[in-house]
Write a structure and sequence with these properties.
alpha/beta; TIM Barrel; Trefoil (Acidic Fibroblast Growth Factor, subunit A); 3 domains; eight-stranded parallel barrel; six-stranded antiparallel sheet; 11 helices; carbohydrate metabolism; Glycosyl_hydrolase_5; Cellulase family glycosylhydrolase; hydrolase; signal
C-alpha cells in the first residue's frame, strides 16, 4: 500500500518558530534505561495501549537517500511527541528507511549521523514514557529507489548478509534500553504483486524474520529479553493467519530468565479494509459503518462484521497462543471536504478497530502521514503540534482512556519504601535527623527504617502529603524548598506548613512505577535523583518531567 506513504504534505510554510518555542521541552539527561521490566503478553498489550505512527518522516527518501523532511514534513520536534502523549496515545511507531545510508563496504556500516538521529527521535518518545516501535521500512519495497530487502531479489545470500549486519548495528544502538523499545523486522514485505503469495518468496521472508530474531537476541543486553515484531506477507491478515506459508521463527537465544511458557514474539499486520473507504483517493466510498447515511457511498465489502472476523482470525492463530498481535497501521483518509459525514464515519472506523483490537488482545496503531489536507491521514499538525482530528482521537481514547491524566490511588493504610527505578536506591532522610530542613537523598537499604519509610495521606483533592516516619511519623513531610517552582529546587523534610510545597500528585506508569509531581511547580516537575546518578548519597531535587527512570519510583509496601 505504498500510496499512503507518498501522499504530499502541503502544510503552510509560513508557520512561525515562535509558536513552538513557547512550549519547548527539556530533554532527558539520559534516555537509555538499564532497568528492564519483564512484561508478559497481557501486561505488554495493556501497556502499549493505543498507538500512533510517525509516518512519512524517517522513512521518507529522495532518490534513495533518507531524509525526515523529504516528503514535506518539518523536522520532528519534542513538542509533537509530547502532544501525541498528551492526546492519550501510549505507543509511537517510528518507521525508518536506511537505503543509501548503508555503506557499500563489506560490513554494511550504517551512517552514524542517521542512526544517531533515529536515536534522538526514540529518546523523545522515551522521555514521554511512550513505547516505541522501531522498524526497517522502505528498504523492502520494490517500488522505492534503492530498495534492496527484496524477498524476490536474485541474490538472497547478499540480502541476508546485509540485513543481518544492519540489524546488528541497530540492535546494539538500543541494547540497553528498557522494555519500552520494540523492534519490528520489516514493513509490508512482498514481491510487489497482489494476490496469492509466491511460496518461494514467502519462504525468503520467513528466513529474514529468523535472521532478525537471532541477530537481535545475540547482541545481548536487554535485547535478549525485549519483545520483537515480525510480519507475514505484506502484513496482510489473511496471508498471515491463513495457510499461505507463514512460519513463526524460533527464539533460541532468548534470555533464560524468561519463563518457557511465555513468548517474546509479536505478529505485525496492517488493516486498511475496505481500501475504497480507507485509502482510495476518490469520491466514491466516503462513508462506513453505523454512521453511514447513504448506502451508495459505502463500499460493497469490508464492513464491521468483516473486521471482526479478521481480528478473530488473528486471535485464534496467534494471540490465544501467546503471540500478541500489533495492528502496526490502520486508518482512513480525510474525505470530509467531499462528504460531511466522512469525519463521523472515520471516527466510527477507529472506534471499531480499537474495540475489536482490545477484545482480541491486539495493539492498534493509527497511520499518520502528516498530511492534514484532503486525503490526508494526519491527526496532528506537525508544525504546531496541534490536534487536527479531535473526533478520531476521542474515538480512540474512549476505548483506550488516558491512564496518566490524574493521580493514582494509593493505599494510605500502608507505609512504603520509595525505590528509584534508575539507581535501585531508596528515598532517605539524611542522617535520620527529625529536624526541619534535613536533606533528602537516595541511599542503600537492606530493610525498612524510619528514615527510609514514608506514608501517603490524601488531602481529598487528588493530592497527597508524604510523611516521613521519623519522630512520631506524622510531623515531617516531604518538602520542596521555599515552595519553589524552579528546576533544581531541593527536596527535604519540614513540618506541615499548609502550602503547595508539601502536596504531590502521584501518577502510575505502565511498568508499575510512579512519578511524583510537585504541586509547587504546577504539576510540571517531578521528584528525581540529580543527574540520574546511581551513587549512594546522591541528592534528590525537583525537575521538569522528562520521562527518565531517575524520575520514577517503585512503592514497596512494608506493612
Amino acid at each position: 500500500m505504498q500510496i499512503k506513504k507518498l501522499l504530499a504534505v502541503a502544510l503552510a510554510a509560513a508557520m512561525t518558530l515562535s509558536t513552538l518555542s513557547t512550549t519547548t521541552l527539556t530533554q532527558p539527561k539520559k534516555a537509555s534505561a538499564a532497568t528492564f521490566t519483564n512484561l508478559n503478553q497481557k501486561q505488554m498489550v495493556t501497556a502499549m495501549g493505543a498507538g500512533w505512527n510517525l509516518g512519512n518522516q524517517l522513512e521518507a527518501a529522495n532518490n534513495g537517500t533518507p531524509s525526515e523532511t523529504a516528503w514535506g514534513n518539518p523536522t520532528i520536534s519534542a513538542n509533537l511527541i509530547k502532544a501525541v502523549k498528551n492526546a492519550g496515545f501510549s505507543t509511537i511507531r517510528v518507521p525508518v528507511s536506511y537505503l543509501s545510508k548503508i555503506g557499500s563496504n563489506s560490513n554494511y556500516t550504517i551512517d552514524s549521523a542517521w542512526l544517531n538521529r533515529v536515536k534522538e527521535v526514540v529518546d523523545m518518545c522515551i522521555a514521554n514514557n511512550l513505547y516505541v516501535i522501531i522498524n526497517m521500512h522502505g528498504d523492502g519495497y520494490n517500488s522505492v529507489q534503492g530498495g534492496w530487502l527484496l524477498c524476490n531479489g536474485s541474490d538472497q545470500t547478499t540480502i541476508r548478509n546485509k540485513y543481518k549486519a544492519c540489524w546488528k548495528q541497530i540492535a546494539n544502538k538500543f541494547k540497553n534500553y528498557d522494555q519500552h523499545v520494540v523492534f519490528e523486522s520489516m514493513n509490508e514485505e512482498f514481491d510487489g504483486t497482489y494476490g496469492t503469495p509466491n511460496t518461494t518468496y514467502y519462504a525468503n521472508i520467513n528466513k529474514l524474520n529468523q535472521i532478525f530474531v537471532d541477530t537481535v537476541r545475540q547482541t545481548g543486553g536487554n535485547n535478549a529479553k525485549r519483545w520483537l515484531m515480525i510480519p507475514g506477507w505484506n502484513t496482510n491478515i489473511e496471508y498471515t493467519a491463513g495457510n499461505y506459508g507463514f512460519s513463526l521463527p524460533t527464539d533460541n537465544y532468548r534470555d533464560s530468565s524468561i519463563s518457557s511458557s511465555e513468548k517474546r514474539i509479536m505478529i505485525s499486520v496492517h488493516y486498511y479494509d475496505p481500501w475504497g473507504f480507507c485509502g482510495e483517493e476518490s469520491t466514491t466510498a466516503t462513508q462506513w459503518g453505523s454512521k453511514a447515511t447513504n448506502s451508495s457511498k459505502v463500499d460493497s465489502w469490508g464492513d464491521e462484521s468483516y473486521m471482526k472476523t479478521n481480528f478473530e482470525k488473528m486471535y485464534n492463530k496467534f494471540s490465544s497462543q501467546g503471540y500478541p498481535v500489533v495492528i502496526g497501521e490502520y486508518g482512513a483518509i480525510d474525505k470530509s471536504s467531499i462528504d460531511s459525514r466522512n469525519t463521523a464515519c472515520r471516527a466510527d472506523f477507529a472506534t471499531k478497530v480499537c474495540t475489536y483490537a482490545k477484545k482480541y488482545g491486539m495493539v492498534p496503531v493509527w497511520w499518520d502521514n502528516g498530511d492534514t489536507n484532503k486525503y490526508g491521514f494526519a491527526l496532528f499538525n506537525r508544525y504546531t503540534a496541534a490536534v487536527t482530528q479531535s473526533a478520531i482521537i476521542k474515538a480512540i481514547t474512549t476505548v483506550y482512556p488516558k491512564s496518566s491524566s490524574s493521580s493514582s490511588s494509593i493505599d494510605t493504610s500502608k507505609t512504603y519504601m520509595l525505590k528509584n527505578v534508575n539507581s535501585g536506591m531508596y528515598l532517605d532522610v539524611s542522617g535520620a535527623k527529625a529536624v526541619n530542613g534535613t536533606n533528602v537523598l537516595q541511599y542503600t537499604a537492606s530493610k525498612a527504617k524510619n528514615n527510609n519509610t514514608w506514608k501517603f495521606v490524601s488531602n481529598g483533592n487528588g493530592y497527597y502529603y508524604i510523611y516521613s516516619q521519623l519522630g512520631n511519623g506524622s510531623t515531617f513531610l516531604l518538602d520542596v524548598a521555599n515552595n519553589s517552582s524552579a528546576n533544581g529546587a531541593n527536596i527535604g523534610i519540614w513540618s506541615n506548613t499548609n502550602c503547595n510545597a508539601q502536596l504531590y500528585k502521584i501518577v502510575k506508569n505502565s511498568d508499575g512505577s510512579y512519578n511524583i509531581y510537585t504541586k509547587s511547580s504546577g504539576n510540571k516537575s517531578c521528584i528525581e535523583v540529580v543527574n540520574a546518578l546511581t551513587t549512594k548519597g546522591a541528592n534528590v531535587q525537583q525537575w521538569v518531567y522528562n520521562g527518565h527512570n531517575c524520575q520514577k519510583w517503585y512503592l514497596e509496601a512494608v506493612n
